[in-house]
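DM from R.C. (forwarded with permission)

"hey, sorry to bug you on a friday — could you get me a structure for this? deadline for the figure draft is monday and I only need the backbone to look sensible"
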Amino acid sequence: MQVQPKVHYFLGANSPTGFYSLYDQLIDREEAQELFILKGGPGCGKSSLMRRVGAAMEEHGLEVEYIDCSGDPDSLDAVVIPALKTAVVDGTAPHVVEPRYPGLVESYVNLGECYDRDGLLTVKDELKGCMKGYKGCYQRAYRCLTAAAQLAEDNRSLLLTQSLEDKLARRAKGILSREMRGEGDQAGRSVQRFLSGITWKGPLWNFDTVELLCERVYELSDPWGLAHGMLVQLAAGAMASGRDVIVCPSPLCPDRMEHLLIPALSLAFVTTTPANPWPHKPYRRIRIEGMADPELTRRNRARLRFARRVAAALTEEAVDALAQAKGMHDELEQLYNPHVDFPQVYAMADGLIRHLEERL
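My reply, with the result:
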């Protein structure tokens, strides 16, 4: 049976500065009805509980937003049920989530209760020893990503002239005049999500999410990372016309916008590279690299290509380090799993489901 696509994002990123968190963007605490914060260590069933809750809400016809783990994209860090203004989140490090309105909005769910401590005592020495080197793997990954980001910034600063910025501004203005007709009563809002991530599986892009939310996709061919200013203007224009936007930063440069989604208009702007093309025919395609000074590009072609190759190699090294860390974490979970009462985990999930069903 074919698996139906679902809305997936990341809220954390393996970035040059370490783990970069957008978990403050998970759900608007001022409007949220409930936020369930899961506590518990490795292998205790946090991801299993969230998948069970998400599947149950989908069976009731509700949209569910799945937040993948940047360390292991096969695992979940959160599920969001927008219609209920509710989320369930793994609140353990590195994405610690603290309550703002405890008891009113946020509630803790302690999955640590599902451990069999007597059983864990039998593997105490293995547990304490199997994570040696884990932090070192992440530190190596972050050093590689730092060097890759610096090379990418060198290429970007080389090509991003005032003339190019003016061209990007004019193109953004033209798109806004065509796509943002009509205005709302109040300004739209923005929320941040990582659409892509650098993981132990390599760089990943959740393009299925774009297709689910947006029928019309502008593909911005942008091998040198030049589209940020254009995307900023498009986001500002969309919000000024009353539309909410989803701003998607780059995991390699989190202060720069990589993609923009405007679900109310079924419209998306997605940057692509030769290594990461849009998999379908886009609604429009804009060659950002073709707007750069051709003479400047020609003179520096060898330098640009060299920096891109080295940055790609450094990213591969980072991925290798993340894969080593994932292997260590898997060993830890394999030690914990036999000593977790999963029927109790599922019973806790079913309790949450029944509670949410009462609100339908």
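R.C.: lifesaver. The mean pLDDT is 94.
me: no worries. The two ends are 29 Å apart (CA to CA).
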